[in-house]
Design goal:
114 residues, alpha+beta, 8 strands, globular
């Protein structure tokens, strides 16, 4: 069993070798280790120069998590991630003109909750 990768969970060890099923061996713990990601697009517009484009982003789809694991997967030409964050409201985007703005404003987030 030396060269096969192993997954350790508590007292159980599951070997992902030929003929074995990690999912069957881990049972109820399998879903705890798998996280679904919610993927979405957002139109970005620079308030200074008017540069626009659609960004692709994702976050973990679990409302109970303290940190949703927000990630910008693709940005349009002319936009860059200035400061990465686990939350959309604190992730800062920078336009090629130098203007910085949040990926999603706090006002946008509040409007969506209503």
């Amino acid at each position: 069993m030396g060269s096969r990768p192993a997954t350790q969970l508590g007292a159980r060890t599951a070997f992902a070798g030929p003929g074995s099923s990690v999912r069957r061996l881990l049972g109820r713990h399998w879903k705890a280790s798998m996280a679904l990601r919610d993927r979405f697009s957002k139109k970005l517009t620079c308030p200074q120069c008017g540069n626009t484009g659609f960004a692709e982003a994702s976050e973990i789809d679990d409302a109970k998590r303290k940190h949703p694991g927000f990630s910008v997967d693709h940005l349009p030409r002319g936009f860059f991630v200035q400061r990465a964050s686990n939350h959309q409201e604190t992730c800062m985007i920078k336009c090629e003109c130098g203007r910085k703005f949040p990926f999603r404003s706090v006002a946008e987030a509040a409007a969506q909750r209503d």
